[in-house]
Design goal:
- With 324 residues, the chain is mainly β.
- The protein folds into two domains: 3-172, Jelly Rolls (Sandwich), CATH 2.60.120; 177-322, Sandwich (Jelly Rolls).
- The chain is built from two helices and 21 strands.
- Residues 21-171, 192-321 form the Allantoicase domain.
- Belongs to the allantoicase family.
- One of its GO terms (biological process) is purine nucleobase metabolic process.
- It catalyses: allantoate + H2O = (S)-ureidoglycolate + urea.
Length: 324
């Protein structure tokens, strides 16, 4: 796969990352390094000659040597945001003489909360990546062409070794059984919203605007470079579905001397008409702002957030309901 294709899908959110609620719920072996490291948001780190009770400490998941014994090692990840998977990166950073020569990835869609062991033992896992050779100390990207919604993925190493990170890039899809039960955030990744484009992503990804929960620090939001012209920065968001927005929350938490001076929201209806949702409105630093949105005549399927002139935001929430 060429780098350009990999770069395209890696701009999509990582549905498995811990900050989105992902969890490594099972592994058949983690003799040398813990399975939970697979979904840590930060890049893997390595410090030579740092030995613990299990040997050299690795920032990843590492299993024991099979020494010719039959069988493979596997780990199961519950996606923080279930959805359609567009690409997967198996990152073997710092694993040189101990990486697996090949891997495969499969997926499931499940409802409810069955025990992890029961999930791992199921025989209806669907292949997303067939057994493929990978390189050590490398980012190994794979595109996925499948429109189904998934809740879990299984990474299998053939036969054993270490993987630093597993990145599962895609688009969130809501649980259909939960739709229609009340108002929801039409701009949430977990409900199916997606960043389509933005003017600048110098410091951090605009996808973080749509993450669940409150930001924990400045780096959890979207921040642009300082502008030296007369323009302003913006981000375009495809909503979870066409709907009516009733309330907007624009959160500048943790942004002090670098929050925008003002913001505006413009919607695009299903027939392509642009409508003003929030006129240019002053913002305060380190503040969760809530603004009522005047009703519009038609459903909105896309929203553009303009910030003036630049800066950083922690979260954007657009509360409403589908239809209209």
């Amino acid at each position: 796969m060429n780098d350009r294709t990999a770069e395209e899908f890696t701009l999509l959110p990582d549905l498995a990352v811990r900050t989105l609620g992902g969890a490594v719920i099972w592994a058949n072996d983690e003799s040398f390094a813990e399975k939970e490291n697979l979904i840590t948001p930060e890049p893997a780190r390595y410090q030579p000659s740092t030995f613990g009770h299990k040997g050299q400490i690795y920032d990843g998941w590492e299993t024991r040597r099979h020494r010719g014994e039959p069988g493979d090692d596997a780990a199961v990840v519950r996606l923080g945001v279930p959805g359609v998977i567009r690409g997967i990166v198996v990152d073997t950073a710092w694993f040189t003489g101990n990486y697996p020569p090949a891997v495969s990835v499969s997926a499931l869609e499940l409802s409810g909360y069955p025990p992890a062991e029961r999930i791992a033992e199921r025989d209806d896992w669907e292949p997303l990546i067939d057994r493929a050779k990978i390189a050590g100390d490398s980012r190994n990207p794979f595109t996925v062409d499948d429109e189904r919604r998934w809740t879990h993925v299984k990474l299998t190493m053939h036969p054993d070794g270490g993987v630093a990170r597993l990145r599962v890039h895609g688009e969130g899809r809501p649980d259909p059984d939960l739709l229609g039960l009340g108002p929801l955030d039409l701009a949430a990744l977990e409900n199916g919203a997606l960043v389509l484009d933005c003017s600048n992503r110098f410091y951090s990804s605009p996808n973080q605007l749509l993450y669940p929960g409150l930001a924990r620090r400045m780096g959890d939001g979207w921040e642009t470079a300082r502008r030296r012209d007369d323009g302003n920065d913006w981000v375009r968001i495809r909503l979870a579905g066409p709907g009516l927005i009733r309330l907007a929350e624009i959160d500048t938490s943790y942004f002090l001397g670098n929050s925008p001076g003002a913001a505006a929201l413009t919607g695009r209806t299903t027939d392509g008409t642009e409508v003003e949702l929030l006129p240019r409105t002053p913002l305060l630093p380190d503040t969760r702002h809530r603004f009522p949105i005047a009703p519009v005549a038609a459903s909105v399927e896309e929203v553009r957030l303009d910030i003036y002139p630049d800066g950083g935001l922690a979260r954007l929430r657009l509360f409403g309901e589908f239809g209209g």
